[in-house]
Amino acid sequence: MQADAKIRTEVGTESGPRGPVCSLRHFACEQNLLSRPDGSASFLQGDTSILAGVYGPAEVKVSKEIFNKATLEVILRPKIGLPGVAEKSRERLIRNTCEAVVLGALHPRTSITIVLQVISDAGSLLACCLNAACMALVDAGVPMRALFCGVTCALDSDGTLVLDPTAKQEKEARAVLTFALDGVDQKLLMSTTKGLYSDSELQQCLAAAQAASQHVFRFYRESLQRRYSKS
Amino acid sequence: MAEAAGVAAESLVGGRARAACTVLNQVVLPGEELLLPEQEDAEGPGGTGERLRLNAGARPRVRVVCGPGLRRCGDRLLVTKCGRLRHKEPGGSGGGVYWVDSQQKRYVPVKGDHVIGIVTAKSGDIFKVDVGGSEPASLSYLAFEGATKRNRPNVQVGDLVYGQFVVANKDMEPEMVCIDSCGRANGMGVIGQDGLLFKVTLGLIRKLLAPDCEIIQEVGKLYPLEIVFGMNGRIWVKAKTVQQTLILANILEACEHMTADQRKQIFSRLAES
């Protein structure tokens, strides 16, 4: 069931000194690898690896019950130690993204819980979390309006755009931008940024992320087709 | 696999809506939009689709039923689950039924489904039954064959019951019964003492219960057995000995990820031993 695809593209390397170099690291995804959760997926982007489990639509605590839609909960576990402020902030970003695509109104008074375990962090952690969450939600059969993916861009000091940066590139970067895009028309679902960048650079990053998301979605399709090839 | 790859190349996720009949039995992903057959004609190369739709009253209306994994989105079908798109031809005229065959584990109660439940509580005149959904189903003590107020059925907490949903929708508590509309048990009721209950994916249950499924016939030839399939992904099986029961359970679990040829091999090997 292991689906591995090397997707590396170089777009516009010769369009000038500030042209974006769009290259994503390797993807790998495995679905349905855990037996207890309703849906699970592990997603690898280069050396960054996330394991995701989805429970739901399941029973919900009365205190968290929402009468007209499902309660979405995201739990992000770091590799070591207890979750801190950074994890809580990421959880919230992932939850807001998922809420935008999950059709929660179809399962009112239930809970959908997404548990994300960081296996290794080598940059673009939030993007990888989003991708793992999406594949696990698809595996669990949670009704969704669209697929979604996360793409991280880094801008270094001379304005070069690096897609899917490694931890080292992230640290050296002037700005790091993460976008969540939906699979229907690559519209922006969520964005979070850190650092200093200009208006035009933001647009440039978004365009590069949208182009890169096509590769992610193509990878999703390939790996899901492989999964259903035996039925 | 080769044809599947061809389709992937020509249409990316987020590509334009495809006609439902061209993707039948292929993998569809959430977010895809499907055109119904009669809309294809209207939105042909002429591009006058929008005009034609204005006098839609003149066209015969086609009834299309959206099964699991599909939703009506304007005049198109929106896919909400990943799986293979299936279609059933209607009896009379019309568009028939479309649905997505997915391999999920979590059960969502559906009216009329036959399920295996575990009695978790007895409170007054109802039993609470765990069916694997988001909340326990209720089962009245009068909903058994021959039960009256005086003559209560012998159901204990922890028992397995095989029943059918009479109320199941997203807003209400699901309700089960163990009798049919004539008041007969018809195979439903408390399941006997021993035997083995195990869980499989919902896709496998549907595959096993399909009318043209050869697995059940093959399994029946191996050992004499009693078997109950619940649409909620639970299978209860009982053979003469514990060993035979375990073999049967393992075969059924393994059937999911095997092709028809592989299954044939396994069954012929088991028949020899």
From TrEMBL, chain A:
Domain of life: Eukaryota
InterPro entries assigned to the protein according to its UniProt record, in alphabetical order: ExoRNase_PH_dom1 (IPR001247), ExoRNase_PH_dom2 (IPR015847), ExoRNase_PH_dom2_sf (IPR036345), PNPase/RNase_PH_dom_sf (IPR027408), Ribosomal_Su5_D2-typ_SF (IPR020568), RNase_PH (IPR050080)
Localisation per UniProt entry: Cytoplasm; Nucleus, Nucleolus
GO cellular component: cytoplasmic exosome (RNase complex); nuclear exosome (RNase complex); nucleolus
GO biological process, one term: U4 snRNA 3'-end processing
Protein's UniProt keywords contain Nucleus: yes
Keywords tagged on the record: Cytoplasm, DNA-binding, Exosome, Nucleus, Phosphoprotein, rRNA processing
Residue ranges occupied by any Exoribonuclease phosphorolytic domain in the UniProt entry: 24-143, 147-211
GO terms for MF: DNA binding; RNA binding
Pfam families, per database record: RNase_PH, RNase_PH_C
Binding partners and assembly: Homodimer. Component of the RNA exosome core complex (Exo-9), composed of EXOSC1, EXOSC2, EXOSC3, EXOSC4, EXOSC5, EXOSC6, EXOSC7, EXOSC8 and EXOSC9; within the complex interacts with EXOSC3, EXOSC8, and EXOSC9. The catalytically inactive RNA exosome core complex (Exo-9) associates with the catalytic subunit EXOSC10/RRP6. Exo-9 may associate with DIS3 to form the nucleolar exosome complex, or DIS3L to form the cytoplasmic exosome complex.
PANTHER family: EXOSOME COMPLEX COMPONENT, EXOSOME COMPLEX COMPONENT RRP46
Family statement drawn from the similarity comment of this UniProt entry: Belongs to the RNase PH family.
Protein name listed in UniProt: Exosome complex component RRP46
Lineage: Eukaryota, Metazoa, Chordata, Craniata, Vertebrata
TrEMBL record, chain B:
CDD domains: KH-I_Rrp40 (cd22526), S1_Rrp40 (cd05790)
GO molecular function: RNA binding
Superkingdom in the source lineage: Eukaryota
Subcellular location, record wording: Cytoplasm; Nucleus, Nucleolus
GO cellular component terms attached to this protein's record: cytoplasmic exosome (RNase complex); nuclear exosome (RNase complex); nucleolus
UniProtKB keywords: Acetylation, Cytoplasm, Exosome, Isopeptide bond, Nucleus, RNA-binding, rRNA processing, Ubl conjugation
Major localisation: cytoplasm
InterPro entries, per database record: Exosome_RNA_bind1/RRP40/RRP4, KH_dom_type_1, KH_dom_type_1_sf, NA-bd_OB-fold, RRP40_KH-I, RRP40_N, Rrp40_S1
GO biological process terms, semicolon-separated: CUT catabolic process; DNA metabolic process; exonucleolytic trimming to generate mature 3'-end of 5.8S rRNA from tricistronic rRNA transcript (SSU-rRNA, 5.8S rRNA, LSU-rRNA); nuclear polyadenylation-dependent rRNA catabolic process; poly(A)-dependent snoRNA 3'-end processing; regulation of gene expression; TRAMP-dependent tRNA surveillance pathway; U4 snRNA 3'-end processing
Domain K Homology: 195-243
Coiled-coil regions listed: none
A Pfam family hit: KH_6
Domain Exosome complex component RRP40 N-terminal per the UniProt entry, residue ranges: 26-103
Assembly and interaction partners: Component of the RNA exosome core complex (Exo-9), composed of EXOSC1, EXOSC2, EXOSC3, EXOSC4, EXOSC5, EXOSC6, EXOSC7, EXOSC8 and EXOSC9; within the complex interacts with EXOSC5 and EXOSC9. The catalytically inactive RNA exosome core complex (Exo-9) associates with the catalytic subunit EXOSC10/RRP6. Exo-9 may associate with DIS3 to form the nucleolar exosome complex, or DIS3L to form the cytoplasmic exosome complex. Exo-9 is formed by a hexameric base ring consisting of the heterodimers EXOSC4-EXOSC9, EXOSC5-EXOSC8 and EXOSC6-EXOSC7, and a cap ring consisting of EXOSC1, EXOSC2 and EXOSC3.
Family: Belongs to the RRP40 family.
Name of the protein in question: Exosome complex component RRP40
Provenance organism: Rousettus aegyptiacus
